[in-house]
Structure formats: C-alpha cells, structure tokens
Amino acid sequence: MNARLDLMAGPVAAKTMKHLIAAGKALADSSLPFATQELVKLRASQINGCAGCIDMHTKDAAAAGETAVRLHLVAAWREATVFTDAERAALELTEQGTRIADAAGGVTDEAWANAAKHYDEEQLAALVCTIAVINAFNRGNVIIQQPAGNYQPGQYA
Known about the structure:
Elements: H1 11-28, H2 34-48, H3 51-63, H4 68-73, H5 85-98, H6 109-118, H7 121-144
Helix pairs in contact: 1-7, 2-3, 2-5, 2-7, 5-6, 5-7
C-alpha cells in the first residue's frame, strides 16, 4: 500500500509539515509528562483511525518504557485501573477536543476544570497544543492513506 501523496515532496506541503514537526518537537520539551503526551497522541489517533500515528506513538511509548497493558487499555481508559487521575483527565480532554463535531458545546467546563486540577497553566497549554497537533497529523495521514507498520521507535526524532 502506498500513500496517495508524499506530503514532503511539494514545497507548500513540505513547509507546512516541517512546521507541524517543529511544533511536535517543542511540545516534547514541555513540562507535560512524556507518558501523558504519548497516551494523548495514541488516544486521539485511535479516535481518528490514523494507523500511522497509532503505530508511531505505540512504539515510541513502549521504547520509552510504557507497559503493554497501559497501551492496550488506552482505548478503554474509563474502565481501566492503570491510569492516574491526571492521565484520565488528559484522556478525557483529548476525547472531547478530538470529537468537537460530536459534542455541540465542544469541551465541557467539567473536563477543563478536571484537567486544571492536575496540570499547571504551562502543562495545560502543552496539553491543548498536543491535542491540536496530533489531530492535524491524524487528518493529514488519514486523507492521504499513509500506510502503517514499518515505523521504528525514534525514527523522526
């Protein structure tokens, strides 16, 4: 299977993608815990059906020491006992921020307040930006049908 389009081949798309990649690298250096960042990226990618990002973030998280149990349970995090309250708040914000069209009001005040109990303002900003950036990557990959399965951990670091 091949992607419909190579987003790095044309000047406009390549420039745009390089900015998204740079945004992702800036977020990696934020004070938002790495595990939380990867769980958020994985959950948004699951919702959006982005195989490329699911492949990447599952493997990067595992390479960084994330357990298989937690990775397997991200899709059913509400019923899982392996996530902290802070991670659960981040996952809820991720779901609501990813499914904006499904909820007339967008992100609820309750979800925001719960996240704000666990993260300081800088971490909240990083969380919001992580959700936005992964959703942008997901949408691009889904549109071009980016194939998945061959990613090596740290490949784009």
